[in-house]
Design brief:
With 407 residues, this protein is α+β, with helices and mostly antiparallel strands. The chain has two domains: 202 residues, Ribosomal Protein S5, domain 2 (2-Layer Sandwich); 173 residues, GHMP kinase, C-terminal domain (Alpha-Beta Plaits, 2-Layer Sandwich). Helices cover 40% and strands 20% of the residues. Strands 5-4-6-3-1-13 form a six-stranded mixed beta sheet. Strands 10-11-9-12 form a four-stranded antiparallel beta sheet. Strands 2-7-8 form a three-stranded antiparallel beta sheet, with helices on both faces. β7 and β8 form a beta hairpin. α4 packs across α5, α5 runs antiparallel to α6 and α9 packs antiparallel against α10. The chain is globular, with a radius of gyration of 21 Å. The two termini are 35 Å apart. The structure holds alpha-D-galactopyranose. The site of alpha-D-galactopyranose has 12 residues, from α6.
């Protein structure tokens, strides 16, 4: 079987186009160019791209000042953009076939749908004191929505990147990631950490991004499983989540409460040595489990970095599987379809498997020897269809580049 490196599910509606269907589906940069021309009757000033991400390991550690290890995907948001002098924003979504228009002066926080992730970027940049005027924008993305692959961060980051270039702002990459996060937190209202925006902005091709979410120190760790006979297979369970719902926020609140009771600024400050005794002080079984996940997950990220540096894919796989077990039993953010995927993949001999992203569904990444992918894909698909689920889209992920200008 030849494994796709992009999901087969990218849905793009065709605007007034001279492109063939094939070009349209494959070349989202051409799709946004075409849509921009349809919107404005002019050429855009440029086209930008910002990717979705997969988190190899380090889940729900970012807002605890901890460690994460994501890499960027080839799947990405694409934006054709040009400035406007009248303080207005017009946005066309190629995927949805919808157009919206805003006056910059009227922007106010709140989630009004897909376009809030763009409108909020203008708001966040202006709140931060950057001189940003209006723009015409055409957007398309093949990052599956709600699948734990950071579809929203890709949209935010592609616009931050475009406005930074168009208005010649010279904002450093980490600052750009932070502005995208402000959009998500303060405008859209999802209380997420920095990982997704940092990954979309800073990742490099062929590398995973180690990020210390307190110091904001980064290390680009070479990650080339194919060179060692391994691959990361992504299984999209098609179970969908939303970060704006209550579960993410309650996990976050539990962590803050646990840190407060333990007398530390963040759970990052709790050592994995002597953890069980230390957590007894919490006197609350749920808080113990939440804190145990975060502290042990931080330790697993550091071990995973060591495994990557040593090209030890077996060790990496074991850490991934331990991460999943911790998310299932202690953080309680998995659900039946992701647990089923992990179980079947491991039974087929995968080196490791875990859910990625915020939780409650979405994607599972399976680290396996290349020769095992067919059997794993076949068995996972059979397990889904036998249990009345839809066959999950599968693709092989390779570490791609972060946000930037294409033309
Ligand atoms: C979502 C959030 C991130 C991070 C992950 C869980 O993707 O956007 O900030 O908290 O969940 O690791």
């Amino acid at each position: 079987m030849r494994w796709p490196t992009e999901p087969a599910t990218a849905v793009c509606r065709r605007p007034s186009s001279t492109l063939t269907d094939k070009e349209f589906l494959v070349n989202l940069d051409l799709a946004v160019l075409d849509a921009y021309r349809g919107l404005t009757g002019t050429e855009p000033e440029g086209i930008w791209r910002a990717p979705g991400r997969i988190n190899l390991i380090g889940e729900h550690t970012d807002y605890n000042d901890g460690f994460v290890l994501p890499f960027a995907l080839p799947q990405a948001a694409y934006l054709a953009a040009g400035r406007r002098g009248d303080g207005r924003i017009r946005i066309v979504s190629v995927d949805l076939g919808e157009t919206v228009e805003y006056a910059l002066a009227e922007l106010s926080p709140g989630n009004a749908g897909w376009h809030s992730y763009l409108a909020g970027v203008f708001w966040a940049m202006r709140e931060a004191g950057h001189t940003v005027g209006g723009a015409d924008l055409a957007l398309a993305s093949d990052v599956p929505i709600g699948a734990g692959l950071s579809s929203s961060a890709a949209i935010e980051c592609v616009l931050v990147s475009a406005l930074n270039d168009l208005y010649d702002l010279g904002i450093e990459p980490m600052q750009r990631a932070k502005l995208a996060r402000v959009t998500e937190n303060a405008y859209v209202g999802a209380p997420t950490g920095l990982m997704d925006q940092a990954a979309s902005t800073l990742c490099e091709e062929g590398r995973a991004l180690f990020l210390d979410c307190r110091s904001l120190e980064v290390e680009q760790v070479p990650f080339d499983p194919a060179a060692h006979g391994y691959a990361v297979l992504v299984v999209d369970t098609l179970t969908r989540h939303s970060h704006a719902d209550g579960e993410y926020a309650t996990r976050r609140a539990d962590c803050e409460r646990a840190a407060e009771l333990l007398g530390v600024p963040a759970l990052r400050d709790v050592s994995v040595e002597g953890l069980d005794e230390r957590l007894e002080a919490l006197g609350d079984e749920r808080l113990v489990r939440r804190a145990r996940h975060v502290v042990t997950e931080d330790a697993r990220v550091l071990e995973a970095c060591t495994a990557l540096r040593e090209d030890d894919f077996r060790a990496l796989g074991e850490l991934m599987t331990a991460s999943h077990a911790s998310m299932r039993a202690d953080y309680e953010i998995t659900e039946a379809s992701v647990d089923l995927t992990v179980e079947v993949a491991l039974a087929q001999g995968a080196a490791g498997a875990r859910m990625t992203g915020g939780g409650f569904g979405g994607c599972v990444l399976v680290l396996a020897e290349t020769g095992q992918l067919d059997a794993i894909g076949t068995e996972v698909t059979a397990a889904f269809t036998d249990s009345g689920r839809k066959a999950p889209p599968l693709f092989v992920a390779r570490p791609a580049a972060g946000a930037g200008r294409l033309t």
